[in-house]
């Protein structure tokens, strides 16, 4: 049995469907079964919250591998990167270790203790907790999901100057790697970096989206100065500012991954599929 925490989300849903399609027994951990309703034909659904360790042992009954695709950047329930990505993942990893299960942790390319982004620091802390745990582990670090950003920038809107190259990856490619990591025990002890073939600025990404949608509206910019003012009060503004000013490029062909046949969907193909 494979437990997917975050199985109700954008990435998790694809991972659950892939694993079920390949004949694996899958259980989804969610705080609200209604959010996993779309998976009830292929997976068991169990209620739990990674912030509440008392909910985890029952969810782990009979589980051999735990996939963590949770995040607390935003969403319902008053979540934060500290409470979900750092501490919640630590609770989940401890529960998995106690149950004798392997752990596949979904993290972020660029996760580091000194990152300007709170989420990246929290992911790094979770990675370190996992590396120090007794659970056999694989970490899958991904760059920005192009399908998520297609939704965020749809207005059309650009954060800051929009001239900073960022690596975007298709969430379908990330799901393929996470699902493989869940079942391939030869990948234990590995950190797999997954990025797409394109480094695009927000301006380029919005232009691609507009051309695919036949959208001729003027693109609105949220000025960098406004993001700076909002940053102390808004996690989203602070992240948008960091994405406009931090080096977020990635060369997927240069990463020494143990998985040699990583899928590499280009951003336009992924966008075409997401706007269809
Ligand atoms: N989006 C990106 O660009 C990006 C880039 C790199 C890495 N990642 C990572 O990829 C993973 C999936 O991201 P996504 O964008 O697909 O996420 P998403 O669609 O926003 O889904 C978030 C998931 O987290 C779960 N969750 C949140 N708080 C929880 C809690 N306290 N206890 C249990 N579950 C909780 C939610 O489950 P319920 O609401 O059902 O409880 C939901 O399934 C995350 O680890 C994220 O950090 C994302």
TrEMBL record:
Coiled-coil intervals: none
GO cellular component term, pick one: photosystem II
Domain of life: Bacteria
One protein family per Pfam: NAD_binding_10
Residue ranges occupied by any NAD(P)-binding domain in the UniProt entry: 6-182
InterPro entries: HCF244-like (IPR044256), NAD(P)-bd_dom (IPR016040), NAD(P)-bd_dom_sf (IPR036291)
Keywords: Photosynthesis, Photosystem II
BP GO annotations: photosynthesis
Official protein name in the record: NAD(P)-dependent oxidoreductase
């Amino acid at each position: 049995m494979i437990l997917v925490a975050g199985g109700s989300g954008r990435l998790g849903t694809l991972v659950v469907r892939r694993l079920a399609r390949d004949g694996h027994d899958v259980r989804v951990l969610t705080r609200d079964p209604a959010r996993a309703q779309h998976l009830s034909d292929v997976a068991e659904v169990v209620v739990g919250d990674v912030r509440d360790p008392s909910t985890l042992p029952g969810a782990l009954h009979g589980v051999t591998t735990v996939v963590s695709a949770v995040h607390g950047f935003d969403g319902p329930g008053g979540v934060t990167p500290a409470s979900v990505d750092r501490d919640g993942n630590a609770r989940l990893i401890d529960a998995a270790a106690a149950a004798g299960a392997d752990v596949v942790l979904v993290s972020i390319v660029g996760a580091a203790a000194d990152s300007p982004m709170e989420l990246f620091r929290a992911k790094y802390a979770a990675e370190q907790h996992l590396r120090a745990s007794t659970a056999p582990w694989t970490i899958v670090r991904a760059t920005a999901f192009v399908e998520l950003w297609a939704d965020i920038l749809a207005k059309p809107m650009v954060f800051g100057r929009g001239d900073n190259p960022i690596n975007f990856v298709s969430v379908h490619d990330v799901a393929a790697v996470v699902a493989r990591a869940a079942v391939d025990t030869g990948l234990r002890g590995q950190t797999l970096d997954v990025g797409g073939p394109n480094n695009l600025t927000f301006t380029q990404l919005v232009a691609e989206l507009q051309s695919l949608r036949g959208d001729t509206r003027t693109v609105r910019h949220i000025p960098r100065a406004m993001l700076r003012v909002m940053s102390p009060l808004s996690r989203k503004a602070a992240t948008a500012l960091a994405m406009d000013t931090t080096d977020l490029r990635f060369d997927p062909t240069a990463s020494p991954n143990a998985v040699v046949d990583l899928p590499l969907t280009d951003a336009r193909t992924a966008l075409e599929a997401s706007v269809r």
